Automatic annotation (TrEMBL):
Keywords (A to Z) from UniProt: ATP-binding, Coiled coil, Nucleotide-binding
Pfam families (alphabetical): SLFN_AlbA_2
Source taxonomy: Bacteria, Pseudomonadati, Bacteroidota, Cytophagia, Cytophagales
ATP-binding among keywords: yes
Entry's transmembrane regions: none
Official protein name in the record: ATP-binding protein
Source organism, top-level taxon: Bacteria
Entry coiled-coil feature ranges: 140-167
UniProt-recorded Gene Ontology molecular function terms: ATP binding
Domain Schlafen AlbA-2: 12-125
Length: 207
């Protein structure tokens, strides 16, 4: 019980979301997909946005969640349920591990499936660039360490130029296309950089 209070005090984040109840299976599917595609996370059903516990009927909520997984997630997301009895009512803890079979897509409307990742406390629609990178093997720790100064260089370039394209980064930071893509996707997923992919030529800015 104490553990759940402490978790709620942390507030919503890239790995935690509160839901009063599950009323829209399509919307909760986007949240579950975003956790599975990123670092995993938990949804606390029976907790309002401000952290107030209101409690739920866990069987009803699990029914809605299972429906969301089967009808609105492709491939279906793996979840674990844990019921926590609190003085204010029952909270259903929905645990979504990071997926080994990403990217997962969520159904937005008939025959329209889209990818989502978790950035800060929001489920953000991915671009094709991010979706492709999710299928890449994760970089080793030694490689991640080597990337640190390159990440800093990219952030410095964005501070200076405000907005840059992939080609700009390749030229200014002297990076291969694959390395530049990987670095930018990593920074987008971390919430440092924002991708604007609705333009004729996609570009990046600081978040």
């Amino acid at each position: 019980m104490q553990e759940l209070y402490l978790l709620i005090l942390q507030g919503e984040s890239d790995t935690l979301e509160f839901k009063k109840t599950i009323t829209h299976p399509d919307r909760i599917a986007r949240t579950m997909v975003s956790f599975a595609n990123t670092r995993g996370g938990q949804i606390l059903v029976g907790v309002q946005d401000d952290g107030t516990i209101c409690g739920v009927d866990p069987d009803e909520e699990m029914y809605s969640l299972d429906k969301a997984i089967q009808l609105f997630c492709d491939p279906p997301v793996r979840v674990f349920y844990k019921e926590v009895e609190m003085e204010e009512g029952t909270v259903l803890k929905v645990i979504i591990p990071e997926s080994a079979t990403k990217p997962h897509l969520a159904r937005v409307k008939e025959n329209d499936w889209r990818g989502y990742v978790r950035v800060k406390d929001e489920s953000v629609q991915t671009s094709k660039l991010v979706e492709k990178s999710l299928t890449l093997e994760p970089a080793s720790e030694s490689l991640e360490e080597k990337l640190d100064h390159q990440q800093e260089r990219i952030l410095e370039l964005l501070k200076k130029y405000r907005k840059l394209t992939l080609k700009d980064f390749m030229h200014l930071a002297n990076l291969s296309r694959q390395r530049a893509k990987r670095l930018l996707v990593y920074l987008v997923l971390q919430g440092h950089v924002r991708l604007h992919d609705k333009e004729k030529e996609p570009f990046y800015t600081l978040s």
